[in-house]
Design goal:
Layout: E1 2-15, E2 18-31, E3 35-39, H1 46-53, E4 61-66, E5 69-70, H2 75-81, E6 82-85, H3 97-107, H4 112-125, H5 141-154, E7 159-163, H6 171-186, E8 190-194, H7 198-204, E9 207-212, E10 215-220, H8 222-226, E11 233-238, H9 243-247, E12 253-255, E13 258-263, H10 265-278, E14 281-286, H11 289-311
Parallel strand pairs: 3-8, 3-9, 6-7, 7-8
Antiparallel strand pairs: 1-2, 1-4, 4-5, 9-10, 11-13, 11-14, 12-13
The protein binds adenosine-5'-triphosphate (ATP) and magnesium ion.
């Protein structure tokens, strides 16, 4: 069964001064138990999508359901099964993390005893025990964020919406959040996550979706998305080649003291052979998710710019 299904979902923000089409006919399904990483530039529409899914914003068109329940018509049924960390979350300042989690759970209908056990477990999992009794108002931004993660993890929600859960977290804390997310997915919970850290999206997600100016450009496993790019290899050479020569294989970029270019497998092999003959230093690797993202989004932007030129 699919945890989330969006069909031709659109959202237009309207205000007295104008409108903004934040989502344009987005169709997306998220299988139960998967970790979906939604990535995209600032303003792509990630938070808009997540807010519609978490029933805090109405769509302008299309349809979305979560575990078969319509997010507009069956709001309460949806809310029972999800938990959310919004992008701009402000946990209650007058509580400490232990109380925050405990009250959140009792509000969701857990017994006191269950809420207590779950809270302690989540605090320990996210390395928050030593801060459990400190007022949230005295915690650093990253610790507040972690308290929010612990809060949703502690719940029994089957689907978790995390809007940039690790922004502002130190590298160690970030990994404790990753662990918690993986563990949740292991327990068959579905995770919908947005992030600007593409290494994070790559490390965690079972499926990746790329949103750009309201349009879904790609969706699938990392391998499926990698197949969408024309140039699946990243080649870096220092010396031995002229720009003109490399331009025959792709679009080289000068990085201070070496050339970097994305290219196909056959060309990558040929450049490697030539580099070897010329004694030039070279590295060849499959593209990272960041490279894939830049290629897919970059292509979309330049396609649009060409369109603009024609119109002018
Ligand atoms: N309340 C609002 N009123 C009008 N326009 C809005 C509103 N909220 C968002 N937008 C616009 O909708 C578009 C999508 O915004 P959204 O917050 O969904 O992007 P995002 O992908 O989450 O970006 P970021 O990575 O910066 O968080 C942007 O162009 C934004 O300016
Ligand atoms: Mg956002």
């Amino acid at each position: 069964m699919d945890a989330l299904r969006a069909t031709a979902l659109s959202k237009q923000y309207r205000w007295s001064g104008g409108t903004n089409q934040a989502l344009k006919s987005v169709s997306l399904t998220v299988p139960k138990g998967s970790i979906l990483g939604l990535i995209g530039r600032n303003g792509a529409g990630k938070t808009t999508f997540l807010r519609i899914a978490s029933t805090t914003l109405l769509p302008s068109g299309g349809k979305m359901d979560i575990f078969g329940h319509d997010v507009v018509q069956e709001t309460n049924l949806v809310r029972e099964r999800i938990a959310v960390i919004p992008q701009e979350s402000r946990p209650f300042y007058w509580m400490n993390p232990r109380e925050l989690i405990y009250y959140f759970l009792t509000l969701r209908g857990h017994t006191r005893e269950d809420a207590h056990t779950r809270a302690e477990q989540a605090l320990s999992e996210l390395g928050l025990l030593e801060y459990a009794d400190t007022l949230v108002s005295r915690l650093s931004g990253g610790l507040r964020r972690r308290a929010m993660v612990a809060m949703v993890m502690a719940s029994d929600a089957e689907m978790l919406f995390l809007d940039e859960p690790t922004t502002g977290l130190d590298p160690v804390a970030r990994r404790s959040v990753w662990e918690a997310i993986r563990k949740a997915a292991h327990a068959q919970r579905t995770i919908f996550l947005t992030t600007h850290y593409l290494d994070e999206a790559e490390a965690l997600s079972t499926r990746i979706a790329i949103l750009e100016r309201g349009t879904l450009l790609a969706e699938g496993s990392r391998e499926e998305i990698a197949q969408k790019v024309q140039h699946p290899y990243r080649v870096v050479v220092s010396g031995g080649f002229t720009q003109g020569e490399l331009e025959g294989y792709g679009e080289p970029t000068w990085l201070e003291d070496r050339w970097m270019l994305f290219t196909g497998e056959k060309d990558a092999r040929e450049i490697s052979r030539m580099a070897l003959e010329r004694g030039a230093r070279l590295s060849v690797a499959p593209v990272s998710l960041e490279d894939i993202f830049l290629q897919i989004v970059g292509k979309d932007i330049s396609r649009d710019e060409e369109g603009d030129d024609e119109g002018a």
